[in-house]
Amino acid sequence: MDKTMHAELPGLTVLTEEAGMAPYAASDYGHDADQAYFNDIYLLAPVGYFVLSFDTTILQMNVVGADLLGIARSNPERAGLRQFIAPRFYDDFDGFLRRAINSGQPEQCDLQMLRTRNQQGFPVSLRASVDASGQAIRVVLELAEGKLAALERSEERFRRIVHNAEEGIWEIDAAARTSFVNPKMAQMLGYSIEDMLEQPLVAFMDEEGRSILERNIARRQQGLSERHEFKFLRKDGSDLWATLATNPIFDADGSYRGALALVTDVTASRASAELIWHQANFDALTALPNRHMFNDRLGQEIKKARREGLQLALLFIDLDGFKEVNDTLGHQQGDAVLVEAARRIGLCVRSSDTVARLGGDEFTVILSGLEHAHGVDRIAESMLAMLSRPVPLEGAQATVSASVGIALYPADAASPEDLLRSADQAMYAAKQGGRNRYSYFTPDLQLAAQARQQVTLDLRSALALEQFELHYQPIVNLQTGRIERAEALLRWRHPQRGLLAPAEFLPFAEAGGMMLEIGDWVFRQAAQQARRWQDELGSGFQVSINQSAAQLRGDTALYVDWLQHAARLGLPPRSIVLEITEGVLLDGAARACERLRDLREMGLQVALDNFGTGYSSLSHLKHFGIDLLKLDHSFIQHLASDSGDLAMCEALIVMAHKLGLRVVAEGVETPAQSGLLAMAGCDYAQGFVYAGVLPAAELLALASGGLSLLN
Question: I need a labelling partner for 451 at 20 to 30 A (CA). Which of 252, 341, 480, 688 fits?
Answer without folding.
Answer: 341
